[in-house]
Each structure stands twice: as structure tokens, then as C-alpha cells.
Design a protein that fits this description.
With 527 residues, the protein is an alpha+beta fold. It contains 18 helices and 21 strands. Strands 1, 2, 3, 6, 10, 11 and 12 form a 7-stranded mixed beta sheet that branches. Strands 15-16-14-13-19-20-21 form a 7-stranded mixed beta sheet, with helices on both faces. It has a 5-stranded antiparallel beta sheet with strand order 4-5-8-7-9. Helix 10 crosses helix 16, helix 12 runs antiparallel to helix 14 and helix 14 packs across helix 18. It is globular, with a radius of gyration of 22 Å.
Length: 527
Amino acid sequence: MRDLIVAVDIGTGSARAGVFDRSGALLGRAEQAIAMRRPSADRAEHDSENIWEAVCTAVKAACAIAGAPPARVAALGIDATCSLVVRDKAGQPLAVSAGEDARWDTIVWLDHRAVKEAEVCTATGHPLLAHSGRVMSPEMEMPKLMWLKRKRPDEWENSGYFFDLADFITWRATGSNARSRGTLTAKWNYLSHEERPWNESFLNAIGLEDVRERGSLPTETVAVGDPIGRLTPEAAVALGLDKDCIVGAGLIDAYAGTFGVLGPFACEPETLERQLALIGGTSSCIVAFSREKRFGFGMWGPYYEAVLPGWWLAEGGQSATGALLDHLLRTHSAGGEPTAANHARVIARIRELQAEEGEDFAARLHVLPDFHGNRSPLADPHALGVISGLALDASFDGLCRLYWRASVAIALGIRHILDKLGEGGYPLDTLHVTGGHVRNPLLMELYRDVTGCRVVVPETNDAVLLGTAMVAAVAGGLYPDLPAAGAGMYPGGSEYAPDPARKAGYDRDYRRFLALYRHRAELEAIL
């Protein structure tokens, strides 16, 4: 009897696999690191074959831990970062940087080499950009493809396939070139709600009139929750599964996490529209659903059926959150490597200092967290971080003060996004948090107290894997549709209310946060 699901989540630094039963219980989990090359500060590259091998290793290990024989696995689900995989006409890797080994064939989502190309897209003023917050991000695939065509013309001529990473894995697993509606709609300017989803006038305006031919990009897409196909014999052996295992359409990792925490509300439309998902890790993503098409500056979307049929999805985010706290530890003289133990040491000392100093603790330090640009709501990849209020303090306590105020700034940035979503008509009041930030007690406290939202933490540490498993369960026939899977597999969550005694202080911090943005803009406007 096929009653189990294998879900794979491919992040920035590793591939994680989980084996779930029909109730959503995680029976086995394994993780395998993946390689990343950083040729410069604004570039990051993966080796897609290394990623495939990591997926295979993690799946085999997770199945072994769960004691799951291949004959019980109904479906395999995949989610991944929105990284761009480039292959030649024979399906072999093509290097994405000049003079390098062809194995580095993937431009990582956080790579910002295509900032100028993104500006060219924005300058067109094309109506399509309304679905990208009216500003194109260098994290999207079209600017990266423009860069490839401009800077690597030989590779462009030799290219045969362009994949979002999740679609690459489903292709590798099934041999099918079918693409997920979720990935193309969210990251490729594919308008799934229109009769002609590839907008030819936009592609012509940015010089990518041949991108569909070069990249083997299909017109039709596969809805999230539908199957792509079955495993090839070769992939089945590599994964330790069998060729009767169904592979579901892939997901963007943040959207998998979104469905993992909001899935139980998919059959309650009025409730779902008040819920918001925050997926916090290296970066942070904020995702909301709506039955109506709602536009907003600096927000990605609205995307039609990027996850749920008949629903629009909007996304905001911060390009560096966990990465910012890691950076502070790594670069401060009293810091060190950003290990879990080092973070815990800083957090413990912050609690001691707060108890000693009360509201005066780090009160004159103010931070703008845009160290890797501002994804939302300013949509400015050139934005830089700001720290106001530094003293001649290189001590460990000095690091703790800066870490605390950077954490406050991250939460204030989330509040800024929520305010803009509210102005756009999203009636949000509940924040479901998942990802690595759940393990940071400072951030979890700040998310509820700074935003004023009720915060829900799911009873699972793997909501991204769970969301992918929910979707795969539908593709594998264990549930009739996504709302049923979301309701049937969600484990529940713990709720936390904001502390009203802290509202006035954080309201003041927010006013200062917005003032700091104005001052930064004034400085940069001086000629």
C-alpha cells in the first residue's frame, strides 16, 4: 500500500528530505550540504548535479531512518529556492561565469549580478510589471537571463534548457520538461491568469524574444498539486525509490512553507485572508493569499494560482535577516563564526543586559537592515544598511547591543511590509512563523510585540517540508485536493499574543525607523 510521501526542500546551503505519513507526521528526516561558489560579493553559483546528488543522498537517508520501503512511497514532492539552472541542448551543464568549470551552471537566488538588467526591465514601464510591484528585482529569472545573453553570448547560443531549480529536479527525476505553474508565475513573469501567459511585447522590450526557444519553456504549466510524471528507472535507483512513485509539480520554497502553515485555512476563505506566513531563514518572506487581485508597490505579485487554485498570492520580503545577524557575528571583533552556540551566547547576554538596564538598553542605537538591498516595500536592490549611535565599544556587550538593535530593525522591517499590505487591502491580523527564526527567541518575541499581530508557531520544525508533503500527497492521490491535504496534515500550532506594555516603545522605534529611511534618502539625494 502506497501511504507515504517523500518531500524535498532545497535551500541555499543544503537539501533536506522528509518522509511523512498521511496524517502529516514526520517519520524520518535527513540533510545533505550543497556546494556554493562565491566568485564575488554580488555573485553566487551552485552546481546542479551536486544538488541532485545531495537530494538523492538525503532521500535515501530519510527513508532509511523512517524504515520506508519504496513500495510504500506514493509521491515525491520538491521545493527549492528560485535559482536559475542553465543547460545545453543535450541537457548538460553550461557555466554561468566566464572561464569557469561548466559544473557551476546555476545562478543562486541571492545573486545580484543582474541589477542593471533589472533596472532595464523596470525602465520599460511595461504593464506586466504591475505583477512585480512595478519594479523588477535582480532575484527574478528574466534579469538573470538578460545578463546571460549579454555577458555570455556563447552559452546563450548553446543553451537548450532554462530551469527554475525545483523544475530542474522534477525534470531530472522524471525526464519531463513540464514546468510548475507556481515557479513560472512567481519568478518568470508568466501571467497564468491570461490566455497568452508569455507576454511577447515584454520579452521583445527586454531583448529576450528568443528566451522560450533557447530555454525550452512550454506554454502550458502544471498546477501545484498535480503530477509531473513518474520516476525514470535511473532516477528511481538514484533516489532509492521505485518507478511507480509519482513526482508532483514543484514549489518555490517560501510558498511550500506558506502552505505548510496556512494549509488548514484553505477551505475557510474568509479566515485564510486574515492569515499571513513569515518564512524566516537567511532571508525572510512574507506571503498572503487573496480572492481578489490586489496590487501594491514593492510587493511581488499578485500571482494567480502560484499555490492554491483560484487564489492570488502576494509576497514581500527582506533579502538578509538571518544572514544579517550572522554577518554581525562574523565581522565584530568580539564575535566569531555564526554558530548556533555563538548566537545563543549573545542572546543570553542580551537578556542579562535587558534585566540590568531596562528600557535604556541600547536605546540610542538605530539600524536599517538593508545590508543586501531592500526587497520590500521599497524594492531597492541598491539600498544599504545604516547604523546610527555607535560608540568606541568593541566589547562583547557592545556586540550584544548591536545584535539586539539589528533584531529590532528586522522586526520593524516586517511591520513596514505589513503596513503596506494593509494599505493594499489585505486585512491581516495573524502571523504564522516558520523557518530558522523560530529558534531565535529575540526575533519571535519581537515579531509579536513590534507588529502587534497574534503569532502562531506550528507544532513542527519543518513546515516547509510539510507544505511540500501536503502538495505531493494530492499529486499522489492520498488527498482529493489541496484544502483537504492542508486540513488533514497540519499538526496545529501554539499562539502568542503581543505584550501591550511594549507597544508605545516599539511605536516610537517605528517612527524613528521611518525617519532614518527619510534621512538616508536625503543624504543620497545630495549632489
